[in-house]
């Protein structure tokens, strides 16, 4: 997962992320490691994800448009 962060985070720092996905009002709270940082942009690796959290993320990702601007083939 990537995010734009206004604070200072260092690579390999451990953080607690709290966010909701556009497809749901359900709030996810996950521990993550900062994998990389470029300016205000950070990439995160989730450390422990429950099956329910994984399913919420999967459903949200499947609804995202592809590079061609079309929905995922699984939704066709």
Describe this entry's structure for a reader:
This protein is an alpha+beta fold and 76 residues long. 16% of the residues lie in helices and 37% in strands. A four-stranded antiparallel beta sheet has the order 1-4-3-2, with no helix packed on it. The longest helix has 12 residues, at 51-62. It is globular and about 30 Å long. Mean pLDDT is 83; it is low at 71-76.
Structure in a nutshell:
With 76 residues, the chain is an alpha+beta fold. The chain is built from one helix and four strands.
Give the topology, please.
Layout: E1 2-4, E2 14-20, E3 27-38, E4 41-46, H1 51-62
Antiparallel strand pairs: 1-4, 2-3, 3-4
Rg over CA atoms, rounded to whole Å, is 14 Å
H/E topology pattern? EEEEH
Low-confidence parts, pLDDT < 50 over ≥5 residues? 71-76
Shape category: globular
Q: How many β-strands, per DSSP?
A: 4
Strand arrangement, major sheet: 1-4-3-2
Mean pLDDT: 83
Give a quick account of the main beta sheet: strands, pairing sense, barrel closure.
4 strands, antiparallel
Q: Classify the secondary structure makeup into a structural class.
A: alpha+beta
Q: Count helical runs.
A: 1
Query: Distance between the terminal alpha carbons, to the nearest Å?
Result: 25 Å
Helix content: 10-25%
């Amino acid at each position: 997962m990537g995010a734009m962060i206004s604070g200072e985070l260092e690579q390999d720092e451990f953080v607690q992320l709290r966010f909701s996905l556009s497809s749901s009002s359900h709030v996810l709270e996950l521990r993550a490691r900062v994998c990389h940082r470029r300016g205000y942009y950070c990439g995160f690796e989730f450390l422990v994800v429950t099956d329910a959290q994984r399913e919420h993320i999967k459903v949200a990702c499947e609804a995202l448009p592809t590079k061609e601007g079309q929905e995922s083939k699984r939704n066709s």
